[in-house]
Amino acid sequence: xxxxxxxxxxxxxxxxxxxxxxxxxxxxxxxxxxxxxxxxxxxxxxxxxxxxxxxxxxxxxxxxxxxxxxxxxxxxxxxxxxxxxxxxxxxxxxxxxxxxxxxxxxxxxxxxxxxxxxxxxxxxxxxxxxxxxxxxxxxxxxxxxxxxxxxxxxxxxxxxxxxxxxxxxxxxxxxxxxxxxxxxxxxxxxxxxxxxxxxxxxxxxxxxxxxxxxxxxxxxxxxxxxxxxxxxxxxxxxxxxxxxxxxxxxxxxxxxxxxxxxxxxxxxxxxxxxxxxxxxxxxxxxxxxxxxxxxxxxxxxxxxxxxxxxxxxxxxxxxxxxxxx
Amino acid sequence: xxxxxxxxxxxxxxxxxxxxxxxxxxxxxxxxxxxxxxxxxxxxxxxxxxxxxxxxxxxxxxxxxxxxxxxxxxxxxxxxxxxxxxxxxxxxxxxxxxxxxxxxxxxxxxxxxxxxxxxxxxxxxxxxxxxxxxxxxxxxxxxxxxxxxxxxxxxxxxxxxxxxxxxxxxxxxxxxxxxxxxxxxxxxxxxxxxxxxxxxxxxxxxxxxxxxxxxxxxxxxxxxxxxxxxxxxxxxxxxxxxxxxxxxxxxxxxxxxxxxxxxxxxxxxxxxxxxxxxxxxxxxxxxxxxx
Lengths: 325, 291
Description:
The complex is a heterodimer of chains A (325) and B (291). Chain A is mainly α and 325 residues long.
């Protein structure tokens, strides 16, 4: 199968998945207890009759279910995810406005976890029973067991009173005057704690995985052959072993995108980071169903795109997955 | 050289062999002990410590270790933190275990069908699994709980519904590995029904890795429950550790203990579950222990 065919197949499947998420959203609106019009209005029993009639008409709620599904899908595909009655804006605008901060947070956290995590894993693999190996194991156990919002709150306590060097809330300082560079540095400064909190869980996982797969690879025949040929230790690690050890980790990182977004919801809430997570939290408090369903849809799309990119990168990097010439 | 007695000739049953490996790991035993203590305190504690965790019994923001009546201090309303820690465990453990049970039942059923029948059934079931994997689990659970109701059963079902795909994939892989082994063919040749082969012949042999992953899914479910209650998405009338953190988080700069202590309980519970899981993993796969 050539790369192009694989790509097109993957694209078609992704489109189908996106459609399926929309159908799920539609079903959720109808499965929820109460009148669907109430659910769409997002104000249980509080919407005016006029408003409800308007919703019934525009979503065709008096028509058979499959017609309603059709109307819902065609509206969604045109970018109409409904209106947020709480914010009084189209849901799509609301989400697009909050997506940047979330992507910034998630990607920074993942990169941090990948770079530091694999490095720690490689260093630990040089001495399987050394002290760093123990640290890696302990950090990964702790990182798995500590609730991420709690880790965040502990960091807030630490950096608010004990060592106040990083801001603990928000994305920028509104009092700041200055050019683009100052503002970017300010955002980066605010990003440190949220990205660290989100990244540390995955850093722990990746360091443990890297260590395990490096140990396995370093014991394999081709590494022994390379050593016998007199290849330098540095080259063996960097060229022969790491390239093979890192592949599964990149794949896992790509596939974990959904879990990372889930974690971001909690981290954003803790640090008041103005992304999709805080939006989800606020719209749940306000029972703003169109917004919360829109966020579910959009984050699923992000995951689908991330999975697709991972799959394609994997095909390009790993010669065993047929690329064809 | 010691004499060989007939005791050495009796083959150990797989379970007692696993237990003897498990027993030798200090960390696994520590986890098991910790877990037993947490479960006992959560179940029996309310009998001995009868302070209602919702009752306002002392001045707000009393520090731990200052008043003997409230040894671990009080929260922003003056409620007893110790009572919260003791009573809060039950909801967390109950939701965690039932959610893990739902995860395991859906996961094993889907994985078993896909792995055993293969072909079209496998294709369709795996596509459904992939669909569930693109939904960010916490967000999906948040939507389910918001749309339905924030009660303990709904929270447990929501967590179960979002976490089964990983178990399904594992079960499928095990079923594919086992389905063509000799003893399965033997069962087939004497005319066993597919149902019998799936549940009575293959499943028992696929259990070890599934037991390990089920243990770990209890830990994950507990973290989910904590996250949902932290966001205010659980029954507000049932005390839980996540609820304590969520309601106290605005005051952390004045009262560190209000969020730190319940968080530490969640941490210790998940830690104990995952240490037991790791221990079981080593016990069932002695070959992997070196890593």
